[in-house]
Design a protein that fits this description.
Layout lengths: L1 E5 L5 E3 L4 E3 L2 E7 L2 E10 L4 H13 L4 E12 L1 H16 L3 E5 L10 H9 L6 E3 L2 H5 L9
Parallel strand pairs: 5-6, 6-7, 7-8
Antiparallel strand pairs: 1-4, 2-3, 4-5
Helix pairs in contact: 1-2
Length: about 140
């Protein structure tokens, strides 16, 4: 089952800057895992959408969640806040949260990986290189 959950209005309009950015969150279920694939900018405007999608998945009974962030090319402090809040939520319901932060993601090296590392919070998350590794039993996360 795949559900397209675009940013309200379909895209974030940046015509004043000469370009348009689309923020999308799609969900697929892989075994017992809900996988949310996120693309675009994760910032003050878009992070509430991701926060809601995480809460929706938990409300539907998913306590094993993967956030696939390799197509996120910008993440600010509000985006980091959503990731930390998702971790806290999953821990509170005795669930699991795994992030996909490949060494090469989006247009250049994974922006989210660099931001989490720079803030010193990367070590809080179980990080995997791809969805297959994240949903496999017994797979060890990448080191921080």
């Amino acid at each position: 089952m795949q559900e397209l959950l675009p940013f309200p209005g379909g895209s974030r309009d940046r015509r004043a800057e000469g370009w348009t950015v689309t923020f999308n969150v799609t969900r697929v279920d892989r075994g017992g895992w809900a996988v949310l694939r996120v693309s675009g900018e994760l910032d003050l405007v878009t992070s509430p959408v991701l926060r809601q999608r995480v809460h929706d998945a938990v409300a539907e009974g998913h306590h094993s969640l993967v956030l696939e962030l390799s197509e996120v090319f910008f993440c600010d402090s509000s985006g980091v806040g959503v990731l930390i809040a998702a971790r806290r939520l999953m821990r509170s319901c005795r669930g699991s949260l795994r992030l996909i932060l490949p060494s090469r993601g989006a247009a250049d090296a994974s922006h989210v990986n660099r931001v989490l590392s720079a803030l010193g919070v990367r070590r809080l998350f179980d990080v995997y290189p791809d969805v297959e590794a994240a949903v496999a039993e017994g797979t060890e996360p990448l080191s921080a």
